[in-house]
Specification:
Blueprint lengths: L3 E7 L6 H9 L6 E6 L6 H9 L5 E5 L6 H13 L6 E4 L11 H9 L4 E5 L7 E2 L3 H18 L11 E4 H6 L10 H13 L4 E5 L2 E2 L10 H18 L11
Parallel strand pairs: 1-2, 1-4, 2-3, 5-8, 6-9
Antiparallel strand pairs: 4-7, 5-7
Helix pairs in contact: 5-8, 7-8
Length: about 250
Amino acid sequence: MSDSLIIIPTYNEKENIEKIIRKVFSLNYFFEILIIDDGSPDGTADIVKRLQAEFPALHLEERRGKLGLGTAYIHGFKWALERPEYEYIFEMDADFSHNPDDLVRLRSACVNGADLAIGSRYVNGVNVVNWPMSRVLMSYFASMYVRLITRINIQDATAGFKCYRRKVLATIPLDKIKFVGYAFQIEMKFTAIKYGFNVVEVPIIFTDRTEGTSKMSTRIFREAFLGVIQMKFSSWFRKYDRTIGQ
């Protein structure tokens, strides 16, 4: 049993899923893994089920249909909060764009005082490998846009490689998190900061996937662009008081 759970949402990740699972379980620190699979037609969940016989700390939740990144993580957060042994709860992609070796660094940041540790591509310059320049610029300026609108001092606002202390997810009303795409990542950071949690950025090198297909779309980008304004406006009429609870 571990105090650390890594949540990995999947949709058609058969090329990557076994390799990422084996890599995580090879690390010096013992993490548990929860796969949230949205009915992948390529058999991703079947691969996970086969590996569960080898790795007892590998968990699987299957959902019907492609329901979105944000709802997958909310499902995983609730699953983790039902099990009191997990103190550190992670978000990570299945495609090796997030280096599993950095999991230990994110956890250490939370052990040493952070409530939310973000694996940041931009806190020390621009650390992205294999992205076309257009994608780098879109991501970088998206974070600038988020800082301008929300006034939060986060260099990588759309980052999806994170470690939460349990108390952060227990405090945030997860049913009120409304966005499902990359805006979900922004909303979770913004909400954690509004509740007064200590959020730190840990520099990482982000490497774009070499296998499988990216899930980025125009709809996801549009949700993030418009959602930031809506999120900021809504925050003016909301109380962020940890003593009130959920």
